[in-house]
Input
Amino acid sequence: MRKASGKVRITGQLIDAVTGTHIWADRFERDLTDVFALQDEVTAAVVSAIQPKMLQAEIAMAARRRPENLTANEFYLRAMQQSYLTTHEGVAETLRLAHRALELDPHFGLVAALAGFCHMRNVTLGYADNPQIERNEEIRLLRFAWSVDDGDPDTLVWASAISAWMVGDCESEIEMADRAVALNPNSSLAWGCRGWIYKIAGLPEEAVRSFERGVRMSPVDPLLHRAFVGMGTAFIELRRFTRPS
Output
């Protein structure tokens, strides 16, 4: 931290204590009169950098455990790992693991929402043998997840995405996405999902702002391509084809 001429500058680095790997670095500068806003900005940046690394570490630990000893949450973590894939096999394995988690914990709203998202993927990616059955199941899981846990930001993320692609109630979906970022303003996943919700609702300007915020929060996220695709299509809708000078 340095102070000079009425300003304060903070340079932060985040290092993995076990491996010594450099995870994140940034520099922040504000007037001394705005020091609390600076503190909030630094906190948000650090939390946003740590959260994806924690999830990856938890997934790695769950992957090492024997299947017969897995808890519902560990099945969910394995399902999350598979959900990064967009192949037919990856979606099917995500569903299998999610349903195992639900067998162990029938009130696990977050994993129900993830399973519903997979049924949506089967439809949108052309994997479904019977699209109508997939739609019915994703709506059932959406309503179930919403009924058991409507206050979890990640559940709201998956639920709003399912609804946006399959229901089309823009007002409700925007409300869910806004609640998700209000509950966890440091979640790059929530901001990325909010970007898609606003883009689908025909509000590309707000979509771009959400995508950009999500990318700033987690610039090395394994799902970063989703934000770039959404941002690109939003810029096309805005007819912005050149980079600002």
Summary: The chain has a mean pLDDT of 84. Strands lie at 2-4, 7-15, 22-31. Residues 35-64 form the longest helix (30 residues).
